[in-house]
Design a protein that fits this description.
heterodimer; A: alpha/beta; fumarase; five-stranded mixed barrel; 5 helices; globular; B: alpha/beta; 60s Ribosomal Protein L30, Chain: A; 2 domains; four-stranded mixed sheet
Amino acid sequence: MSEVKKLKTPLTEQDVLSLKAGDEVTLTGVVYTARDMAHKRLCEFIENAKPLPFPLEGAVIYYVGPTPAPPGRPIGAAGPTTSSRMDKFCPLLLSKGLKATVGKGYRTKPVIDALEKHKAVHLTAIGGAGALLSKYITDAEVIAFDDLGAEAVRQLKVVDFPAVVAYDTNGNSVYK
Amino acid sequence: MRNIEFEKISQTVKTLCLEAAFELPEDVLDALKISAQKETNHKAANILEQLIENARIAKDERIPLCQDTGLAVVFLEQGADVHINPPSNDNNLTVLDAVNAGVQAGYEEGFLRKSVTSEPLDTRNNTGTNTPAIIHHSIVPGDKLKIDVMTKGGGCENKSAFKMFNPTAEKNEVIDWVIDVVKSAGADACPPFIVGVGMGGNFELSCLLSKKALLRKTGSLNKQKFYAKIEKEMLERINKLGIGPQGLGGDTTALACLIETAGCHIASLPVAVNIECHSHRHKTAVI
């Protein structure tokens, strides 16, 4: 069995170039959450040259809309949502330095091409394992779009968050 | 005539929403365990083990099984001899209001995600209460009220499909199409799935049947031998697709395939497939 690759965020080009589809990885450091509406707004910000709520260079975006944090916990359940819903926004973010996305399921060709062009990867975490995955998140803070509720942009601190490289920088995929 | 208090219904619905969010039904958990043992792909077996661990954490620590705590789909079977007493402050409230009050209370108390918008295309503002629930009400003989709450995630619902076949369609045409729907759901809809199939009725009834089928236990078979045989064949073919847990390969693409049927127009053969993820959350109570 291949060794799990430990990644620290923000990621460098060197970090992602070494990853191959199917590799098991863990993420430690800061990752940002964004889903459908947040993506739409981030892209509008870029198109209007407005400053973004977080730096995209080397960033990791996790496609998740967690359940509200109960007292005493940093976050509720926090598993990945379907990645392909973000496909129409993802290439623009990749062109601005985003180095990895985390979600579940397939990506379409424009994203796969953009991953290759801008040297970035897409990771998959276990969909529907929201309770389990929440254990790897030690801190969560809403940093933008508070009005979106579960869909607000959060800055998460993660420790050894498990994922698999679904699409690598060479256009390869873990899916058949 | 038997009287049931409005509050009793909302309290029961609240409890069912909470149980659904934190406790994977035994039959689903058993199906995951059996699949984990049978799985020949060790990475797939490992994912199934993690899903079993997820269910343990959810139950023990009261963390929702999945962050998508779903849209509440509620089936009510009201005995013809049941009368619902409205609350003292408003005589106009009905059993449907009681269900929505219960859903709202459950999602608030359990720190569950509110995932319902007020309308589809314009503002898409979140109602903030996870209501309105989708409620299917029917009248049955007796003096009981049966409540099934299914909290259905959006990712798998998005991959569901409907098709109107010609009435002369061969059995295999229908089976092939169902397999195709499952195939295109793939990794996006959180396999291993529970596949609900509705056949017959009309446009809307076939879709409703495909959801009702999901209320059956994972190991159960359709009461009619003809359809039970198709259920077995479909499940076998789905598990030969090799999609596997999370779409990363393996023998376990579905835990069950459940068909419900109704008679239909001589010109029609409607078929609907409701894809359900492995986090198949539903709870039942009878008042």
